[in-house]
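Before the break, one more example. Copy the sequence into your notebook; we will annotate it together after we see the structure.
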Amino acid sequence: MGHPLPQGERVERTVCVARIGAAHGVRGAVKLWTFTEDPLAVKRYGPLSTKDGARQFEVTSAREVKDHLVATLKGITTREQAERLNGLELYVAREKLPTTDENEYYHADLIGLAAVTAQDERLGRVVAIHNFGAGDIIEIAPPAGATMLLPFSNAVVPTVDLAGGRVVIVLPGEIEGDEPGECPSRHPRESGDP
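Here is what the structure looks like once it is written out:
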């Protein structure tokens, strides 16, 4: 018996797919850092929006350069216009992204899921997925008290049930074979970020 997601209005989930960097040249081009498996995929998603949806940008051309793209955006034709966009994150509706493989998840799909123990006891809700360089970390907010930061590994999160609206959490102290105070073995899941 799971804990379904709250009923109510449909919330459109968005996923951050790129961040605009510094201006490149004098004709409005920008450096563009993408968070997609295929960096050039940002051209196929249609207009990209700011987080609040107030502004939209369409990538009209892009080429790969080292670790980023150099892109032109529709309507941005001067260096000054491009400079004002530096730091903006660009989002796309989750529905426009490709489906994921098994054991791959978009972070946006995990946010809001109920977190329960293997015995179906409520721990809280998933509020964020972080990566500080050593693998993904899942952040669980309990009904009261401080949030928990746990490795997003197969040992700690053995079940992700998107349809049921929940993740099963095995707290690190409960994993068989762990010595007290020892970190569980980490088998990082694919984050599935686009």
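Confidence is low (pLDDT under 50) at residues 1-11, 177-194. The chain is about 5% helix and 35% strand. Try to locate both features in your own notes.
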